[in-house]
């Protein structure tokens, strides 16, 4: 089965999963900014693998199916489990944050399963995809100096609760394509650089 990782798109997805695991490690060892930077790398790879898959000629049906499932599992780790862990770490493993993190992971898994079943409709996702969680997490961390001391955990709790509602909503979100990749790349690289600088200081 390892031969399926020789496929370029699947290899990128596997690299994204590795970055998600690295993010978890960094979060658990008290370096959440660096962990989020790693997760932003996974976020960027998640956007690239689909483009590579479409441009790779001769992909077999089995390769496509394995890639699709591998992508969902990577999303579950990088965009559901990792953010939930950071929420717990920042809030000192409070039970309220455990409840929010658990709900976020369950809803994230439901969303990924829903997408695998129904896909995007007419080029739109129904509800906000889980891919928005890590950028939202990064944004809250980047704005944390403006929140005042001790407010980061509360801000994350509120952000996650809002995202939960948006995940389950009927809002139509366009699928990333064309020019939309430019802000994705710019945000991922810029936020990663800022978070790495803060985490290393």
Please provide a written account of the structure.
- It contains 7 helices and 2 strands, in the order ααααβααβα.
- The radius of gyration is 17 Å and the shape is globular.
- It has one domain: Four Helix Bundle (Hemerythrin (Met), subunit A) (Up-down Bundle).
- The N and C termini lie far apart (43 Å).
- Strands 1-2 form a two-stranded antiparallel sheet.
- The mean pLDDT is 95.
- With 201 residues, it is mainly alpha-helical.
Characteristics of this structure?
201 residues; single chain; Four Helix Bundle (Hemerythrin (Met), subunit A); mainly alpha; two-stranded antiparallel sheet; globular
Summarize the helices and strands and which ones pair or pack.
Elements: H1 8-28, H2 32-55, H3 61-90, H4 95-118, E1 124-126, H5 133-147, H6 152-167, E2 172-174, H7 181-200
Antiparallel strand pairs: 1-2
């Amino acid at each position: 089965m390892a031969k399926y990782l020789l496929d370029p798109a699947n290899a990128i997805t596997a690299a994204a999963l590795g970055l998600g695991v690295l993010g978890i490690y960094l979060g658990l060892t008290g370096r959440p900014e660096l962990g989020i930077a790693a997760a932003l790398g996974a976020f960027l790879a998640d956007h690239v693998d689909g483009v590579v898959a479409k441009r790779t000629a001769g992909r077999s049906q089995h390769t496509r199916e394995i890639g699709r499932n591998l992508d969902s599992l990577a999303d579950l780790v990088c965009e559901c489990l990792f953010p939930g862990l950071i929420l717990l770490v920042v809030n000192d493993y409070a039970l309220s944050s455990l409840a929010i993190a658990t709900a976020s992971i369950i809803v994230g898994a439901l969303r990924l399963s829903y997408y695998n079943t129904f896909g995007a409709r007419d080029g739109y996702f129904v509800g906000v995809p889980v891919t928005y969680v890590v950028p939202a997490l990064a944004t809250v961390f980047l704005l944390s100096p403006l929140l005042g001391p001790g407010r980061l955990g509360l801000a994350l709790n509120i952000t996650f609760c809002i995202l939960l509602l948006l995940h389950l909503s009927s809002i139509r979100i366009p699928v990333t394509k064309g020019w939309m990749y430019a802000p994705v790349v710019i945000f991922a690289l810029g936020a990663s650089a800022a978070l790495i600088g803060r985490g290393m200081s």
